[in-house]
Amino acid sequence: MATESSSQLLIQATFEQLRELEHWVAQLGAEFLLSPSVVHHIDLCLTELVSNLIHYGYPDGKPGMVRIRFWREPERIVIRVEDDGTPFDPTAYVSASLPTSLAEADTGGRGIRLVRHFADEVHHLGSASGNQLTLVFRSPGTVAERQPL
Questions:
Q1: What percent of the chain stands above pLDDT 90?
Q2: What pLDDT, on the 0 to 100 scale, is given for residue 90?
Q3: Whole-structure pTM over 0.70, yes or no?
Q4: Burial classification of residue 137, based on how many CB atoms lie within 10 Å of its CB (0-12 exposed, 13-18 middle, 19 or more buried)
Q5: Cβ atoms 71, 5 nearer than 8 A
Q6: For the CA atoms of 112, 113, 114, 115, what is the dihedral angle to 10 degrees?
Q7: Is the pLDDT of residue 83 over 80?
Q8: Under CATH, which number does the domain 5-144 receive?
Q9: Distances (CA, A) of 115 to 41, 43, 107, 118
């Protein structure tokens, strides 16, 4: 994994740690000059994934650990989420069809759909010891690239 620049965060899989995740993503945006839309996409994807992990990844109620790695390459941003939760492959998950009315709408079940929409690639590796999910955002653009010379 050749990287141009990188950062990582290690958090416990609890709702209280979502604030730490949000701050880390904001710091990435500032440090790596990411455009606001890319920061928003990364934040949304990671919040959805970690929230799902907290809800479903630890059925015994004992939270585990989540390591999130970020690296930037010339044409893409790569984020790897590693956890020690119940193995689950979101790339194989079949999303329910979208509701046709508000009466049919449910409050949940859209996180994986959002991740698939905002990340250009999603890859999963699972094992008995947990999951490794890799998100790729292509041609991310930076604040510096958007400013006139």
A1: 64
A2: 85
A3: yes
A4: buried
A5: yes
A6: 50
A7: yes
A8: 3.30.565.10
A9: 8, 10, 17, 5
Angle at 37 between CA 107 and CA 43, to 5 degrees: 50
Would you list the domain boundaries of the chain?
5-144
**132, 82 Cβ separation under 8 angstroms:** yes
Residues 80, 82, 87, 88, CA torsion sign: negative
Give the pair of three-digit tokens for residue 77.
Answer: 């941003």
Tell me what the mean pLDDT of segment 9-23 comes to.
97
Task: Quote the DSSP letter at residue 1.
Answer: -
CA distance 115 to 120: 9
Of 17-31, 53-67, 102-116, the one with minimum mean pLDDT is 102-116
Q: Encoding tokens for residue 39?
A: 């920061």
